[in-house]
Amino acid sequence: MEIAGRTIPGFLFSKHERMNSTQPRFEKEIEFQESSIARELFGPQEKNIDLLRDKLGVVIHVRGNKLNLQAEVEGPLNTACNCLIQLYDMLRSGQTFFQKDMDDALRILQQDPGADLQKMLSDTVFAVSPKKTIAPKSINQRKYLQEIKEKELVFGIGPAGTGKTYLAVAMAVSFLLQGRVRKLILTRPALEAGEKLGFLPGDILEKVDPYLRPLYDALYEMLDFKKVQEMIQTGVIEIAPLAFMRGRTLNRAFIILDEAQNTTPEQMKMFLTRMGQGSQALITGDKTQIDLPGNVRSGLLQAEEVLSGIDDVGFVYFQHPDVVRHDLVVKIVQAYEEYASR
Questions:
Q1: Does 129 score more than 80 pLDDT?
Q2: What is the per-residue DSSP string for 221-275?
Q3: DSSP class of 282
């Protein structure tokens, strides 16, 4: 049998379709040849098999090295077999994987049934800091990181939880530590969200700090707290509201504009024209969470129309299968998408 263009050895495979008294069911059987590898594949107390059952709704019976898989529709059944066969092949080749890799594998195969899991799960890590190594967990995340490596201006557009901001900060830290840029600038528009900034305590930076907190959180995931504070004090890392970017030319900097759906067209144009020599700009946003007044158009939507025809500008669109937070977040995002479509 061929999976992703490769012959998968070491197992016996059979398939048949049958009818029961109520509705058609699809059934497949896999027999793995090496018991020790099969046990590792199934996981302790067969937790990996339980994960497949829960995620795909497939009935799986384990009998020694044999698996009997049944489902009401063929798609999830094929995904389960594809995943098991490829992971078994990985284990036979000496590569290891963890239970979280099973989640990633399913997410990848649901997006692209022809994906090569061995390549995806063991591919070169794209962003590295002393504290963290980052690798893509979905097809679109992989494309996102690749676009950042190849283009100087990239838009990451999609729902919450897809890793847009997290991966952007990871790549920015990587560029900074490698010496590819000299400065890291993180910014976002400071919408008042029902509160007037003038009534909040402190100076202007303290007033907008809550709006910038997600960027700090991502930074602290990549670098030690003390290192981040040191870089902020020396100006190597700058975290500021978008209004602070006006009138500047930013050379040799990695600039991230987060929550770009809440920029006005004027603000977006202002930001885009800040890029100087050797700079990299990354813009993230979610078109379903625009908080601007009803008569104000989003700068992100306009930029998408204006710049989509320029080859040197990258656009990566995330969908609900790319969500890497809690499983419930995927269901919430999908429910809102279905509601909006109605």
A1: no
A2: HHS-HHHHHHHHHTTSEEEEEGGGGTT--B-SEEEEE-SGGGS-HHHHHHHHTTB
A3: E
